[in-house]
Design a protein that fits this description.
By secondary structure, the protein is an alpha+beta fold. It has a single domain, classed as Jelly Rolls, CATH 2.60.120.10. The chain has 7 helices and 23 strands. Strand 6 and strand 7 form a beta hairpin. The structure holds fe (ii) ion (FE2) (2 copies).
Length: 365
């Protein structure tokens, strides 16, 4: 032990820097916060901007390896220039020209697409081909082959959500192109819908499928019926008439890392405010309204996409007294629940709602 000269905290700090060591006593608040302090910002992308961008890309950008999906990702300004909507979720609008094929591939990122306008297009997932209709939810579980194509003269457009940021954070991405442009179709048309689409009944000779949802596509007509049925009997003070898409054999979410919802805000509804850990990406599907996030009002109408960061206080408004508004959304809640990190609380104020202090303006900031 050498004690030939007196030590100082400055010398200690320098030694630590050289040795790539950092003292907790100088970083504690930063790395072990009292509460979440996400870099992800509440944000909104308008349908006009999304559609215009996608349409122009449809004319200018061809689909070849390096870009075998014409997808335009939401880049949250809090994600340091990366194409991430939140710290766990990647979300995009995808455009497929008429008679075009988005080639087959597979990856370990879990994926869904929510169809805005299917226009004669299809998706094939592990040999099961489904035609895409407005409001359908299509699943691509991890490492399943999938390709998309169009059989019409018209373009198709949909929303994609994947857990790419999480997958990259975990250093777990794998990707493989299929040797063929389109995989062989081996199932009957809409087979998974016909086999598993009535969730409370399943083929008697089969065991429940628990590792992933047996249902590849959740058809809009079924979602719509479930929404109307639920709206006639029950609602939630924070989310009004909200449905979670589930694996019909487990009741669990459609993906291990995120879950999907369709919710109806009945005419004139203004929900109570709450907050919870986990981030969400929403798409206004029908109607118009607003979501107030940490005091800022985000006005939305059909096609707009917006982000609610973790622990941000939020409430939803459908100001229209005559028409319902519909929101499709994706939440990383299953991840937080599985890891014991889920927490939620109601907003405390005399009426359970926030004071609006700002209005979000598209294209500013
Ligand atoms: Fe993919
Ligand atoms: Fe919420």
């Amino acid at each position: 032990m050498s004690t030939t000269h007196p030590d100082s905290t400055e010398q200690l700090r320098e030694a630590m820097q050289r040795r790539r060591l950092i003292p907790l006593w100088e970083m504690e608040a930063e790395i072990m916060g009292f509460r979440p302090n996400p870099t992800t910002q509440p944000w909104l992308w308008s349908w006009d901007d999304l559609y215009d961008t996608a349409e122009r890309a449809g004319h200018l950008v061809t689909m070849e390896r390096g870009g075998d999906r014409r997808a335009i990702a939401l880049a949250n300004p809090g994600q340091g220039g990366r194409p991430y909507a939140t710290s766990t979720l990647w979300a995009a609008v995808q455009w497929l020209n008429g008679h075009e094929i988005a080639p087959a591939h597979r990856h370990t990122s879990q994926a869904i697409r929510f169809i805005i306008d299917g226009a004669g297009s299809y998706s094939t997932v592990e040999g099961d081909r489904v035609h895409l209709g407005r409001g359908d939810l299509v699943l691509t579980p991890p490492w399943t082959w999938h390709d998309h194509g169009s059989e019409s003269d018209e373009r198709a457009i949909w929303m994609d959500v994947l857990d790419i940021p999480l997958n990259n954070f975990l250093d777990a991405p794998f990707f493989e192109p299929h040797p063929e442009q389109s995989q062989e179709v081996t199932a009957a048309p809409d087979e998974s819908v016909l086999k598993y689409g009535v969730g409370q009944l399943r083929p008697a000779w089969e065991a429940p499928i628990t590792d992933r949802s047996p249902l590849q596509t959740y058809k809009w007509r079924d979602t719509q019926r479930a929404l109307a049925n639920l709206a006639s009997v029950a609602s939630d003070p924070f989310d009004d008439v909200a449905l979670e898409y589930t694996n019909p054999h487990t009741g669990g979410p459609v993906m291990k890392t995120f879950t999907c919802w369709m919710q109806q805000l009945r005419p004139g509804t203004h929900t109570l405010a709450h907050r919870h850990t986990g981030s969400s990406v929403y798409m206004a599907f029908e109607g118009h309204g607003a979501t107030i996030i940490d005091g800022t009002r985000f006005q939305w109408s059909a096609g707009d996409m917006f982000v609610i960061p973790s622990w941000a206080t939020h409430e939803h408004v459908n100001g229209d007294p005559d028409a319902p508004a519909l929101l499709f959304s994706v939440h990383d809640t299953p991840l937080l629940k599985a890891l014991g990190k889920h927490r939620s609380e109601a907003h405390e104020s005399s009426n359970g709602r926030q004071q609006v202090t700002a209005e979000f303006v598209v294209g500013e900031g």
